Amino acid sequence: MFWKKYIWHKAAENETYLKLNRTGIGTIELNGKKICVLKQKNDWYGFAYHCPHAGAAMTESYIDLSGNIVCPLHGYKFSLKNGRSKSPEGFCLKVYPVELRKDGFYIGFEEKEK
């Protein structure tokens, strides 16, 4: 079985340091990348700042009733767990694992993304 290995980066001292917008999405810059973060039902998710379809800023997206993140430009829906699109075109939103630890809020980058 294949397991991904991550390099963890501290993004904030704790979740209260994250600035979330009106839709509950925040932006963090780590490793030269902008990453969106979102808390849903006590779980944190990290995902790409730009939609893979047309590059819209995902900070203006929202969560639908099924728990998918919805792009604000064309309405593409993506799973927060794996980034897979719910549309037949097959777009995939890059997702990042998030951990809230005793000493801070961390986001994982795949080892190959150094």
Describe the structure.
It is a single chain. A hairpin with a 2-residue loop joins strand 3 and strand 4. The protein has a four-stranded antiparallel beta sheet with strand order 2-3-4-8, with no helix packed on it. It has a three-stranded antiparallel beta sheet with strand order 1-10-9, with no helix packed on it. The chain starts with 5 loop residues before the first strand and ends with a strand. The protein is globular, with a radius of gyration of 14 Å. The protein has one domain: Rieske [2Fe-2S] iron-sulphur domain (Rieske Iron-sulfur Protein). It is mainly β and 114 residues long. It is built from no helices and ten strands.
Topology record:
Elements: E1 6-12, E2 25-30, E3 33-40, E4 43-48, E5 62-63, E6 68-70, E7 77-79, E8 95-96, E9 98-101, E10 104-110
Antiparallel strand pairs: 1-10, 2-3, 3-4, 4-8, 5-6, 6-7, 9-10
Task: Give the tags.
114 residues; mainly beta; Rieske Iron-sulfur Protein; four-stranded antiparallel beta sheet; 42% strand; globular
Biggest sheet features: 4 strands, antiparallel
- Low-pLDDT residue intervals, each spanning 5 or more residues: none
Strand content: 35-45%
What value does the Rg take, in angstroms? 14 Å
In helices, the fraction of residues equals: under 10%
CATH class group? Mainly Beta
Number of helices: 0
What best-fitting shape do the alpha-carbon axes yield? globular
The CATH superfamily turns out to be Rieske [2Fe-2S] iron-sulphur domain
- What is the total tally of β strands? 10
The ordered string of helix (H) and strand (E) elements is EEEEEEEEEE
- Report, as a whole number of angstroms, the end-to-end distance: 23 Å
Helix vs. strand class: mainly beta
CATH architectural arrangement: 3-layer Sandwich
Please tell me the overall pLDDT: 91
How many structural domains? 1
